[in-house]
Amino acid sequence: MSGAPPGRKWRFHAPVVASYAGVGTVTPALSQHLAALPPSSLGTAAQVITPGSNCRHEQVVLWSSNRGGVLCSCFTGTQNALFLSVSSRSFVCKHTSALLFCLSTARTRLAEFWQRIHLGAAPKDFVRRSPLGSSSWLVLFRSVYLLVSFTPANVAACIAPSCRRFRARCGHVKLARPFNAELRSEVAVAVKEWSSSAPKAAPAGDSACLHGGLPEEDAGIEKEPGDTVRDGGDAAEATVALRVRRNLLLCVARGGDWRAADLKGMSNLFDVCAKSGLVHENGLVSVEPYCGSCGCKREERHMVTKEAAVLYTHHPSAPPMRMLIGRWTCDCKRLVKYDGNADALFSLRRRDQTRRWVVFTRALLDKLYSFIISARSTYTAATRHLSADILSFSMRRQDVVKVGTDMLRTFVIPPETACCPLCGPNPEFIVIDGQALGCTYPDDVNPARLEEEVPVLDIQASALRVFQSPALRAAIAKVLKSSTALTGPQTELMRAWHRTIAVNDRASRVGNCAPNFGVYSTDDDGAWLHIRPFLQAFLGETVSGMFHGHDEKATRLLSNCLRLQVAGKWRDVSEAVDGIGFLTNFLGWFAAVLNEDEPFRHAVGTVLLCAVDMEEAVDKLFSAAANKRDTVARGCVNAEYCRKWGGMPIPEDYQRWRASKIGDDGGDMDDPLVCFESFLGLDRVRPGIKDSEALKRRVGYRGEALSIVLECFPSLPKVIFYDVACKLDKNALRRVRPILSAHGVRCILDHPHSITHTCSPLYMPDESLGATAGVATQAAEVWHSIAVANRTSLAYMAPKTYMAHKMVQMAMMNIRKLQRMASSNTKGENDHVALAPFYHSKLVRVCQRGSACSCQASIVDNGVRETEAALRHKIDGTGGINDLLGAEPAAAVAPDGRERAEENDKDAAVGVKLDQDPEVDDMLDEDVAEVVVLDEHAAVVEADGDAAAMFHPNIPAQDVSLEGGRLVNLEPLSTKPLTDSKAAGLKSLVADRAPSTLVRPRSKAKIRLTVADFRRFEKEMWLTDFNINSLVALINSRALQVAAMRGAGMSAAARLPRTFMFNTYFFSRLRERAGSYDYAGVRQWGSRNGLDIASVDRILIPVNLESVHWVLVVVDVQHRHFLFFESLGGTAAAVLGTVRQWLTDEVQSRLGSGVADSWDIGSWEGVIDVGFSRQVDRGSCGVFVMAAADYFALGAPLVFDQKDMCVLRQRMGVALFADSLSIVDGCAFLPNVCDGDETGDAE
Question: How far is CA 290 from CA 187, 287, 747, 1142, in A?
Fold first, then answer.
């Protein structure tokens, strides 16, 4: 049920649910289906659901509680089933949603279903063998079902929220362990009998083990003299052109084309290699074709000076090759030395002992950096490896580290490699690697930073606790954490506070505060494991911040119900504390006692109310301390900082603040080698904060975690995983408390660190499931740490060298993770998968070699980037013919097997071809797991009554072509929210599906749109070239419809501007590198795609700046001006200058010099800012650009702003799914996943 596509399989299961409830009619077909379902040993009490996977995270149990709720045992749940079972609420997850939907479809009321299937008031605990595996057990313990599994090492796994913190000793595991032990003994006997009769295998030798170099081997090698030098006769480095930027991973054309060719002889092989730059004529001088600083192309007038060089190749036995390289002087007065990128080479720009320049093949250096980055080894070990593997390689390790570092610094790391495909640029959870904030050589690190003085305010830690007496807290902590006897004064304190406090985890304390084992026995783990965290959190630690992200008013209502209302009333308002794990565990476990014991209930309510009131009290303390006269006099700006930067600032706000600082010299503080921080694609949005007094006590530079989070994220994350999260939280609440409170930030330890910390359960991961939303917190830092992975290999490098390597290492780690997340098997192993096809098809926009590289041919020919499957086919020769770009989709086949006919609906009056209903094509790509299959798509809704509201206000309805009630939509994207049913239908296209699943196999842009592409329209995700170009094709398609309607004399179309829009690769090709301009490269792009420069009114050009930000240029030919649309308010001079030059060349080329002179394009005004709405989030620039393009194309005023981004994302998703902007109701094609009377989406 959990894996069923919405709208089809769920309806199929609806009769099954009705049958379980005893209210449905069981047909022969249904009986056969029921027999095929997984067996359940629980009768009508619960049902085991599994999608066919053996992963325990995907196997769940559904059941009805005694009080009427539908509960689930799924791993991703953030609610406590034990706690929910004491109320009438249901679990909120995909499994319970599916069940409730099936009940609704089957016309079965939940109450009627509950009457047939629910637990009793006091069900008996039991254990049964699970049908899902030999070591999996179905366990019912305290009214909570769970699947308990055991590993071959007999390690138990219990995933109930109430058990996760103590999963190896909770009640479910204790019940299942004897049964599993008996099963293991039976298996052991059977194995012993089998092994005694089986032939003995020969003992295996020791397996080989690859060891990296020792960490101290690289210490100081950068400062040692090497064999490569730069002597006094060489040009100064400052006068040499900058190095050419390179692809982080090789593109297909680099060494892969010859394998894709049909080789019939050595002559063909030689030709292919020569064209690819793999073979050079003897005596040919290799020259850099472009200046790396200004982008100027070398011409014949630039004189070349020849010099000798030696080329080291990756061939295992070939000797070094002699070659000639040349240098020339650019018009910018820079000396352009040979770099080698165009020839798949790399020049070290250093000479060997014979004064020859040293050059390497890219493949050789790939071996080197793969050994350093992927194998996490040292340069010493890499030098040994290369000298053993390549006969001609004899460079010393100090030279190897130079060439490796110089090579890594030329790599272009796409911002996409640092952006989660699920969370986007504003993640809900972040993991801070504490070791990444330090540096081995702090004396060499002097980061340039602009910060505000925001110190820790003078708020005593005791003011954040229920008990402010340190001595009493120490006594309570001793009781909770040890069995050490209390001292005399501590005894008196405890007596004065309370007569007894019975809690300790199996400690053998006697006398004062001894646990009352007469009520709860020593083996009753559950009671003691729930009592201790509750008391520790409320009585022993700070309670301030406990309710961040929760409804404090609702929590106060719950506490008052416990204190003042009758027994059981508190159950109805328990939802307020769902996300506070230790509290839900305690209330769920002792629910019956709370109802029976009024003093106990009143005490719990009083403690809870005290914690809630503490939040308001601490707010007042913070305000008083921040505005204190002497605090302000010291230059502390805590109050002003929180007031100014507490909302959702944008980079423009930070830039204005920075411009106001006198000490800012305008340097690039975002350069990783200047600030020693690297956050790709994340512009600073807030100033950093510092505590000058604390800095005086620190040794060397250590980045501050709190400051980094505030600087990088406009919307702060819900959870910060950190190895000292407790200290970070307490520090933050006394520095910027209003900001963290407003954003609901929680600081959480991961499991390894939580074991060693004695802080409150507030910081324990499994006690904060409501905040962590089921995120796996096992060793969070270890799994995501870059410092840990590179601790041995990079620890002894200089800071700048370390930073360069760390950035590439992080990118490579993320690329492999992103590739797995985008594949059809998101949990499969991918260490063996070549990353280059994925990298070049999904993560980078252009190849750094430019249009000369053959991997750019598809963009030039079709305007479409080659798919990952096509690129992989070129590399390894795998895949079928349909994997290649441009393969036509197979004919769609209806469910009954008949081929669907393509309907060419035409306007009878004017011959305008209208958009057809979307069809689902057969699967084309072998690497794609599935294709989204829809229900019978609904017909386009016919308009009733006055149709004028469905069109642009200036277009009379009677002028729009009609046929059979169908209308052509000429309105821009609506900002009216979708109905709940349509929004659910859109979400169902991507919910619980592999990212590689095809949603639209062939769009008008000739692009295959997958689940991953549609997920780009969720949250604040960046739009990619695939998304933008698919929408560009729809705008141009609608423009053709409008042109045909205008030709038929329809006044509605005549009032609209004649529009053409280029795709995203146009400007990238026009200006391939900084300072360059190449009209010849795009001369045919306009005419090939239908641009008539003589009759167009508006030309729209999307531009991507630095691969991180989308802007739009509107060439208004009709009114003779340029419009620059920038959602963040940036500068436009360079972009408008390039577009102005292109338009001049285009008019001269198409219409002649006379027309170009009459147009006088040089005098056209460039409109940069006309009061357009601004973007205030991190990832909606692409949505702003395409929404603006849609409005500009129809001559409509821009009436949207930031608050409309969520709706516009939905509308764009609907348009891409329907593959049309001119369909009146594109939502009619979405799958129906909700039962109700909602029909179309009224525009």
Answer: 71, 9, 50, 20
Q: Is residue 971 part of a domain?
A: no
Complete DSSP assignment for 931-947: B---SSPPPPPPP-S--
Task: Please state which of the ranges 83-97, 412-426, 460-474, 1034-1048 shows the lowest mean pLDDT.
Answer: 460-474
Does the pLDDT at position 1121 exceed 50?
yes
Phi, psi of 893 (to 5 degrees): -115, 130
Q: Which long-range contacts (CB under 8 A, 24 or more apart) does 113-117 make?
A: 113/17, 113/20, 113/21, 113/23, 113/64, 114/64, 114/68, 116/20, 116/21, 116/22, 116/23, 116/44, 117/20, 117/21, 117/44, 117/45, 117/46, 117/63, 117/64
Token duo for residue 634: 């010291």
b/e per residue 481-497 (b: at least 16 CB within 10 A): eeeeebeeebeebbeee
Q: What is the DSSP secondary structure assignment for residue 828, as one 8-state letter?
A: S
Report the run of H or E that residue 37 belongs to, with start and end. Answer: none
Q: Which amino acid is present at 861? A: D
Residue written as tokens 């980094």? 708
Number of domains in the chain: 4
| pLDDT for 13 beyond 70 | no
In a domain, 387, yes or no: no
Cβ neighbour number for residue 1088 with a 10 Å cutoff: 12
What is the per-residue pLDDT for 365?
A: 92
Distance separating alpha carbons of residues 374 and 367, to the nearest angstrom:
10
What distance in Å separates the CA atoms of residue 418 and residue 437, rounded to the nearest whole number? 18
Query: Is residue 552 predicted with pLDDT exceeding 80?
Result: yes
Where are the alpha helices (H) located in 919-1064, listed in sequence order? 980-987, 1011-1014, 1025-1047, 1051-1054
Least confident of 519-533, 555-569, 796-810: 519-533
Name the domain boundary from 855, 872, 889.
Answer: 872
**Domain-located, residue 600:** yes
DSSP-derived 3-state class of residue 173: helix
Fill in the amino acid letter for 1183.
V
795 pLDDT band (50/70/90 cuts)? Answer: low
pLDDT, tens only, 1128-1178: 877 777 899 999 999 999 999 999 999 999 999 999 998 886 778 888 888
Q: Determine the straight-line distance between the first and last CA of the chain, rounded to whole angstroms.
A: 34
Place of tokens 């020791």: 206
Residue pair 915/946 in contact by the 8 Å Cβ criterion = no
pLDDT of residue 278: 61
One-letter amino acid for residue 791 of the chain:
R
More confident call, 1196 vs 165: 1196
**865 and 990 share a domain?**
no
- Match 């996760």 to its residue by tokens: 164
Check pLDDT > 60 for residue 354: yes
Sheet with 1059-1061, strands from edge to edge, namely 1059-1061, 1098-1105, 1109-1116, 1121-1125, 1165-1167
Measured between alpha carbons, how far is 695 from 691 in angstroms, rounded to an integer? 6
Q: What is the CATH number of the domain that holds 1066?
A: 3.40.395.10
Residue length, the chain? 1243
Task: Match 């516009």 to its residue by tokens.
Answer: 1208
DSSP state of 246: E
Q: Give the HSE-up count for residue 106: Cα atoms under 13 Å, Cβ half-sphere.
A: 28
- Least-confidence region, from 115-124, 199-208, 439-448, 1034-1043: 199-208
Q: Is 858 in the same domain as 999?
A: no
Residue listed under structure tokens 């280029």: 1062
Phi-psi region of 897 (alpha: psi -120 to 50; beta: other; left: phi over 0): left
Average pLDDT over residues 409-430: 86
Any domain includes 410: no
504/730: higher pLDDT: 730
CA atoms within 13 Å, Cβ hemisphere of 869: 19
Of 290, 344, 342, 352, give the one whose Cα is nearest residue 322: 352
Q: Which domain holds residue 851?
A: 835-872
- pLDDT digits 0-9 by tens, 383-417: 999 998 898 898 999 999 999 999 999 998 998 88
